């Protein structure tokens, strides 16, 4: 609100009084000396200005483009990081897992980030449960947000699309059909470690799957493991983002990331 | 991952060993007796299935539509909740604040929720700082996510678009120009109170502004006040969602909400 | 600090300037209008006055005395809550587990609380690992703070004295010898559940063992289980505090609790 | 529990079944393959062993003794850290503020810690509100746990003994009379900062005042200020612990600290 115009000021004060009147009950804990509106205005530092994309889901001006359909220049092979990423680009639009070639990972390393990624189940629907359209997104090369064709495909709840694999089940199953593209909008908070290597605070993740909340600042309980209890065996810093080759021809497009 | 197929199993195990080899260092804290993959699968209860919208930003199947351009049936006047919402509908597309008529509020009450809302600054750019395109979204009728024309319009950082008003500044300014529509995708966690009325845990809010993270599970420090220190003066339950008449012709459209 | 005396005021201001000078760097985010000291004083409501005990470890005036050596009137048998607690009182000083009679539990129910309890390993040192001096304190009849003779007695780290059983290992092993009394000073925060029964926030526990921090607001991951993964299978409210008969003659004394 | 003895095992299983039977309702989320007790035992690394003091309140074996009545060797003047601490030692038992000489601070720097400290109001009761027995303990030289003679001495709730000064009021007033010694047992968690200097997580504090909980993992909202809104103006690492000269002859004794 603006205190420079008397009119607005009156509106503001009126509004404030309405709020109080409306809620009744005990008054807020107040200081013994009335304050002025300006006293709770914080002006510095100015918030950085960025330019959002024209279309929801596209990259804003401060994002790093990890994949825009043209090339895999931001990616390498995980089996041999000195080699290019061995997956396929189709129609200058999306990449497709080349089964048997192994995971791919970014050249850059990341910690806290906002990630947008789109994925599609393989064109041919086959297999079931974990065998259908399985892939995954590994934050810091360790913590997996599951990618799976979860459309009409029952599996364990902490292993379906939108789950933190074998850790946190999604709130809902918001999966689209196998010939449609899905989006993940992810806010990832990396785990923190103490100087001596012990865990200080666990990782956290918020995920919108096709615009629908499936993880709300969920705790990540440790390194993703296929077998056994999850925990944080060692301290680490920023690390690569990896996409999993799980032997299914899962497709990915429009991948961008913002460091937080 | 699927343990029923030997092939997949081998991939999984190989992958798991790669991870371990790759990160080296101290081994994870392990139990003295090896586990099986199935032991960390949780199958029940099945995750509810919903249908996402075709287009990012549109309502999924489990959303309550608060406004789709056709009518204000979900809203009433805040000055007199027995009266219809006095704001204007334009082109069967958006609503516009009718200055001087007061705030409007939903008929339904909400607590934890996911909200999608689109807004545009008034067509005519006038005023400055808090005087330009000012409105607001009040969760539980108390906690304001600020709406403002923050495009080329400096104001205090904790009062611009994307801020929790006079509480939390946004991470970035992702505002579009005054003739363009903006989106807020909000995950709101209501404050909890103890049976005796004391605060148990404060409210929390995550906001994507035009798809860009501006609040990441930020703490809401109390009832939004124009003047003075924020706090939680009283316990309350679910309450209406309100839109503010701040004397500017701010526009809103495509409003839907999901109870969490 | 007191603003009524000029002298003190000067000290305060000087101190405040010292702090600023000393830390250099960027100045604190300041409002555009200077405040007065009184504006951040909160006077109401007055903080309740209680009387602490003369001796550290003894009950303050607002504590509920659960056991003072005289009788077991606050306790019943867990096998049959209509029956008195079947354990033994020794020397009008402490109670001792009567092996085979089962757990005992309080008549009253508790949620958030501060608990002081003293325990001693059985007079005769026998058995090893989990077999030596095993008992336990169950908050809300579900979440176990382990009691064990952990003096020169290696066991699994998440099962020794000061652990949340099979969940959180203590930070250090602060156990006294078997003929000495130990103290636990515990701050317990109960889990919260949503109206539909889902977990809202997990339980939390802080424990000082013989005055030494062994749990620092640690997360309790669910119902204590001897076998399997911990979780929160069902919502519940306040419940009894229970002491475990694990077939060892563990001793307890000076038990008091404060509702938080 | 011990799985090596069949007897104990049976007790454990019986107990576990009792728990389940007793709570009824929905069964815990279970994996499709039963586990063994050993699978949730974590043995490594062994928890460090320390020796607690004979008497509650005294220093355990891993504490750093900051003051034991004999000398001020661990302290220096804050006005000139190259000079010895100018306060007075009385009876080889306690130190007393020498009004006008300024604060004193430790030679060592600390971050997360457990602190035990005892204090007494000045022998002569004079002044009122903030003028009576005022001193303070500054963690990391910035965040003040208030010391005041709060016995029959009303002041603002967020400025009395046990408060985080001008931030968090204590849960209760557990102050002893002016000729008696008080104890603070404090668990302090330092704020964390991101590499770029922004706050990552605020400080936290738990305080037992004379054995009674007055702060339960309370959030510290920033640098303690006599005037204005608290915030975190700059990143910092470990820093000295300081005791305040507020012109009152407050007394301190038995000060020890453990790094966490």
Please, could you describe this protein's structure?
The structure is a homotetramer of 260-residue chains. With 260 residues, chain A is mainly β. Chain A folds into two domains: 3-30; 64-259, Exo-inulinase, domain 1 (Jelly Rolls). Helix content of chain A is 7%, strand content 31%. The first copy, chain A, is built from one helix and 15 strands, in the order αβββββββββββββββ. In chain A, strands 1, 3, 4, 6, 9, 12, 13 and 15 form an eight-stranded antiparallel beta sheet that branches. A five-stranded antiparallel beta sheet of chain A has the order 2-5-14-7-8, with no helix packed on it. In chain A, a hairpin with a 2-residue loop joins β12 and β13. The longest helix of chain A is centred in the N-terminal third of the chain and has 18 residues, at 6-23. Chain A starts with 5 loop residues before the first helix and ends with a strand. In chain A, 53% of the residues are buried. Residues 1-28 of chain A have low confidence and may be disordered. At the A-D interface, loops of A face loops of D. Chains A, B, C, D: It holds the Pfam family 3keto-disac_hyd. Chains A, B, C, D: Residues 63-258 form the 3-keto-alpha-glucoside-1,2-lyase/3-keto-2-hydroxy-glucal hydratase domain. Chains A, B, C, D: This is DUF1080 domain-containing protein.
């Amino acid at each position: 609100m603006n205190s420079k115009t008397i009119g607005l000021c009156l509106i503001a004060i009126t509004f404030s009084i309405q709020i109080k009147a409306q809620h009744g009950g005990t008054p807020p804990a107040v200081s013994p000396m009335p304050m002025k509106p300006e006293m709770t205005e914080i002006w510095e530092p100015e918030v950085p200005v960025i330019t959002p994309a024209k279309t929801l889901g596209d990259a804003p001006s401060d994002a790093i483009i990890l994949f825009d359909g043209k090339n895999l220049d931001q990616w390498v092979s995980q089996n041999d990081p000195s080699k290019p990423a061995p997956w396929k680009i189709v129609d200058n639009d999306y990449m497709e897992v080349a089964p048997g070639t192994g995971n791919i990972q970014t050249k850059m390393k990341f910690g806290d980030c906002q990630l947008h990624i789109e994925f599609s189940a393989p064109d041919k629907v086959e297999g079931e449960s974990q065998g259908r359209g399985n892939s995954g997104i590994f934050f810091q090369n360790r913590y997996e947000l599951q990618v799976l064709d979860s459309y009409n495909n029952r599996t364990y709840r902490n292993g379906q699309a939108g789950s933190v694999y074998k850790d946190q089940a999604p709130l809902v199953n918001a999966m689209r059909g196998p010939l449609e593209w899905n989006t993940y909008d992810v806010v990832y908070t990396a785990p923190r470690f103490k100087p001596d290597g012990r865990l200080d605070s666990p990782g956290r993740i918020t995920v919108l799957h096709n615009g629908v909340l499936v993880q709300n600042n969920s705790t990540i309980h440790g390194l993703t493991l296929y077998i056994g209890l999850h925990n944080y065996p060692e301290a680490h810093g920023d690390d690569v983002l990896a996409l999993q080759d799980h032997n299914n021809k899962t497709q990915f497009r429009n991948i961008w990331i913002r460091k937080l």
